[in-house]
């Protein structure tokens, strides 16, 4: 019998690539999306729409997922990445980030039925461990997702393995200009955009590696350990 994976934020970009990959592996894919779903129709694909910032959307998504049968794998990928300076209502700004990154994954995970030897991956960011004053709500809520995932590794032990991927710069957004791209890549050791395949590989590994649970894997081209400070000083 084929296996089932749930991927959130699978309408486009990385989530779409993840969904396409697991379809090619012969899995049943439940692809959650928010506004737009660019995935092509496929007999093994089921799409579910929900704004994870909205309580009522999450409640009806959970009802639907509770009836979907056991899942073998989940990737919590949905994410909002809004600078704090764009917030007109700071309370709402934090609420949206924490709803999408922490509350919705918790509600979804609670609603699911699990197949034997199931596994879950939460996609966070290297910025969970590096402060960024421009994206404080994003960083804080992704750090929340990461810590929540590790708690789930404890709570679901023996039933679901839970691991975390911390991506670095995998694919720039269209609004990122050349100067920004050059600056970010100059801070990595591999010095190129990693591409979605780097995260697909890491997800594949963590979902299939039977000995791994409660781990955090940086997939960042070495950006986290790259020198962030001028080290030309002399003693
Ligand atoms: N791109 C990078 O270089 C990078 C770096 C570090 C970490 N990451 C992490 O890697 C993952 C994938 O990156 P990405 O660039 O593909 O992410 P993304 O495009 O920013 O977001 C992923 C998906 O989340 C959905 N989403 C946003 N707001 C939502 C809401 N309120 N309710 C439900 N879904 C919502 C988006 O759907 P809509 O577009 O329809 O809203 C989008 O398809 C994310 O978790 C991201 O934080 C990415």
From TrEMBL:
InterPro entries to which the protein is assigned, alphabetical: NAD(P)-bd_dom_sf, Sc_DH/Rdtase_CS, SDR_fam
Reaction(s) the record says it catalyses: 7,8-dihydromonapterin + NADPH + H(+) = 5,6,7,8-tetrahydromonapterin + NADP(+); (6S)-5,6,7,8-tetrahydrofolate + NADP(+) = 7,8-dihydrofolate + NADPH + H(+)
Keywords: NADP, One-carbon metabolism, Oxidoreductase
EC number: 1.5.1.3, 1.5.1.50
PANTHER family (UniProt xref): DIHYDROMONAPTERIN REDUCTASE, OXIDOREDUCTASE, SHORT-CHAIN DEHYDROGENASE/REDUCTASE FAMILY (AFU_ORTHOLOGUE AFUA_5G02870)
Family membership: Belongs to the short-chain dehydrogenases/reductases (SDR) family. FolM subfamily.
Function: Catalyzes the reduction of dihydromonapterin to tetrahydromonapterin. Also has lower activity with dihydrofolate.
UniProt name for this protein: Dihydromonapterin reductase
Source organism of the structure: Thalassolituus oleivorans MIL-1
């Amino acid at each position: 019998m084929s296996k089932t994976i749930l991927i959130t934020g699978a309408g486009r970009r990385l989530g779409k690539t993840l969904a396409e990959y697991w379809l090619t592996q012969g899995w049943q894919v439940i692809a959650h999306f928010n506004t737009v779903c660019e995935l092509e129709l496929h007999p093994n694909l089921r799409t579910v729409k929900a704004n994870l910032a909205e309580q009522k959307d999450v409640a009806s998504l959970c009802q639907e997922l509770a009836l979907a049968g056991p899942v073998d794998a989940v990737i919590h990928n949905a994410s909002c990445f809004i600078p704090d300076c764009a917030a007109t209502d700071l309370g709402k700004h934090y609420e949206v980030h924490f709803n999408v990154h922490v509350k919705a994954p918790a509600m979804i995970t609670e609603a699911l039925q699990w197949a034997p030897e199931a596994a879950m991956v939460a996609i966070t960011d290297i910025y969970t461990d590096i402060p960024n004053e421009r994206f404080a709500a994003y960083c804080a809520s992704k750090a929340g997702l990461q810590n929540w995932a590790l708690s789930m590794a404890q709570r679901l032990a023996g039933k679901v393995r839970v691991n975390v991927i911390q991506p670095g710069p995998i694919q720039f957004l269209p609004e990122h200009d050349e100067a920004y791209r050059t600056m970010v890549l100059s801070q990595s050791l591999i010095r190129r955009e990693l591409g979605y395949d780097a995260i697909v590989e890491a997800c594949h590994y963590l979902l299939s590696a039977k000995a791994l649970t409660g781990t955090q894997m940086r997939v960042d081209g070495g950006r986290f350990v790259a020198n962030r400070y001028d080290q030309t000083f002399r003693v």
